[in-house]
């Protein structure tokens, strides 16, 4: 396994929907392994393929941050089936390092996807699990959490990123 470079916004791969995964092979398994290693190293609880510059509809997540092996989840070609309720909480993103802001998401989400072998499954998640699945599925759809903020908050974050870029601290 190898660490991958996490791309930062405004890299164009983050703003375009990923391509559906059609081949479930050793190359895919290797990518998923590298993504888990990269996510844990960052550290984070979710990482979409587009965030490592791979335009594919898949993500890895582990809401236990590596503490519970049963929490390691791979979702390939995710599709949100149902959402309900609301939660407003601070959210971050590995493609926006150091930026955390309140984002409103659904409290519960049911997401259908394929596993590493191509088998279809569903997860009915609440709170952090729902937030993570929705955040990462957004990445698969070319949506970043900046798009979920109010226009005022979005402009404040963009201004902060521009300052970091000018200072050479955001590549």
Shape designation: globular
The computed structural class is: alpha+beta
Q: What Rg is obtained from the alpha carbons, in whole angstroms? A: 15 Å
Q: Got a strand count?
A: 7
Could you please say which CATH topology applies here? Peptide Deformylase
Keywords for this entry:
alpha+beta, Peptide Deformylase, five-stranded antiparallel sheet, two-stranded antiparallel ribbon, 3 helices, 26% helix
Topology:
Blueprint: H1 26-41, E1 46-48, E2 58-61, E3 73-84, E4 87-92, E5 100-105, E6 108-114, E7 120-126, H2 128-140, H3 151-166
Antiparallel strand pairs: 1-2, 2-3, 3-6, 4-5, 6-7
Concise synopsis of the structure shown:
The protein has 171 residues and is an alpha+beta fold. It has helices at 26-41, 128-140, 151-166; strands at residues 46-48, 58-61, 73-84, 87-92, 100-105, 108-114, 120-126.
Structural overview:
The chain is of the alpha+beta class and 171 residues long. It has one domain (12-166): Peptide Deformylase (Alpha-Beta Complex). It contains three helices and seven strands. The protein has helices at residues 26-41, 128-140, 151-166; strands spanning 46-48, 58-61, 73-84, 87-92, 100-105, 108-114, 120-126. It has a five-stranded antiparallel beta sheet with strand order 1-2-3-6-7, with helices on both faces. Strands 4-5 form a two-stranded antiparallel ribbon. Strand 6 (108-114) and strand 7 form a beta hairpin.
């Amino acid at each position: 396994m190898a660490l991958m470079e996490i791309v930062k916004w405004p890299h164009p791969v983050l703003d375009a929907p990923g391509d559906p995964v059609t081949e479930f092979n050793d190359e895919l398994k290797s990518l998923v392994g590298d993504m888990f290693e990269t996510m844990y190293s960052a550290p984070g609880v979710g990482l979409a393929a587009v965030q490592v510059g791979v335009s594919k509809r898949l993500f890895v997540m582990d809401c236990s941050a590596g503490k519970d092996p049963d929490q390691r989840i791979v979702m390939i070609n995710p599709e949100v089936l149902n959402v309900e309720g609301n939660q407003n909480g601070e959210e971050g993103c590995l493609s926006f390092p150091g930026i955390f802001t309140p984002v409103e998401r659904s409290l519960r989400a049911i997401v259908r996807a394929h596993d590493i072998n191509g088998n279809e499954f569903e997860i009915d998640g609440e709170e952090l699990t729902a937030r993570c699945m929705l955040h990462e599925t957004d990445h698969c759809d070319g949506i970043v959490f900046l798009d979920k903020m109010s226009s005022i908050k979005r402009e404040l974050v963009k201004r902060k990123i521009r300052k970091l870029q000018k200072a050479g601290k955001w590549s």
